[in-house]
Automatic annotation (TrEMBL):
Boundaries of every PilZ domain copy: 19-90
Name the record gives this protein: Signal transduction protein
Originating organism: Novosphingobium olei
Classification lineage: Bacteria, Pseudomonadati, Pseudomonadota, Alphaproteobacteria, Sphingomonadales
Molecular functions per Gene Ontology: cyclic-di-GMP binding
SUPFAM superfamilies assigned: PilZ domain-like (SSF141371)
């Protein structure tokens, strides 16, 4: 006996993070320190889509990308299509690095003028 007609239900869509379109030339740095000029096409909370005239890096390659006005991020190339490729970024790692860059507390306490 069927209680519910399963054909009436559709799977819940997996929503992708919102993307911010941009066309920005940036430098991509590989694990061995070599660099490549790329154009970032869009950015989301979880990744970056870019293109490289010299060809896309291989899937699985670890890279660091310096995004203007956003942050330096590191991630892994997850897909390639011709010269375009996608990088899954570790935004938490960038947040940790940014927190580590905060200036240290002054060695002498501040004195108020009075």
């Amino acid at each position: 006996m069927t209680i519910v007609d399963k054909s009436l239900f559709r799977p819940t869509p997996v929503l992708r993070p919102r993307r911010r379109k941009m066309l920005a030339p940036v430098v991509l740095t590989f694990e061995d320190g070599t660099t490549c000029s790329v154009v970032v096409e869009n950015v989301s909370a979880s990744g970056v889509q870019a293109s490289c005239a010299q060809g896309a890096p291989a899937v699985g390659t670890q890279v660091r990308i310096a995004l203007p006005e956003i942050a330096d991020l590191w991630g892994v190339v997850r897909w390639i299509e011709d010269t375009r490729f996608g990088i899954e970024v570790d935004a938490r790692g960038a947040a940790r690095e940014k927190a580590a860059e905060k200036p240290a507390a002054p060695s002498q306490p501040f004195k108020l003028r009075g």
